[in-house]
Description:
Blueprint: E1 3-12, E2 28-38, E3 47-56, E4 67-70, H1 73-84
Antiparallel strand pairs: 1-2, 2-3, 3-4
Amino acid sequence: MTERTRETEVTFAHPFVLSALMIPLEAGTYRLIVEEEEIEGLSFSAFRRTGTHLEIPAIATHIGTRQRLSVSLQEIETALAKDAGTGE
C-alpha cells in the first residue's frame, strides 16, 4: 500500500482554540501535516486521509521541541474561518 504525507502551512492572525487543548494557541503560521494512503483496486490513483496533524508551536517560535497534535481537518477549517471573521 502506498502512503504519502503532504505538508502545508496555515496562518492565524489571532490566538485560537482547538478542542484537544485547554489553552489557546498563539497567532502565527503553523505546519499542517496530512497523511494519506492509496485506495487500492481502482482504475485510477486515489488517496484517503488517514491522519491530520498540526505541528506546535508556531513555525517562527524558536524552541527545541515540537509536537504534532492530532486534529480534524474540519476543526482547522472552522478555526481558520473564525479567525478570518467569516465564521462563528
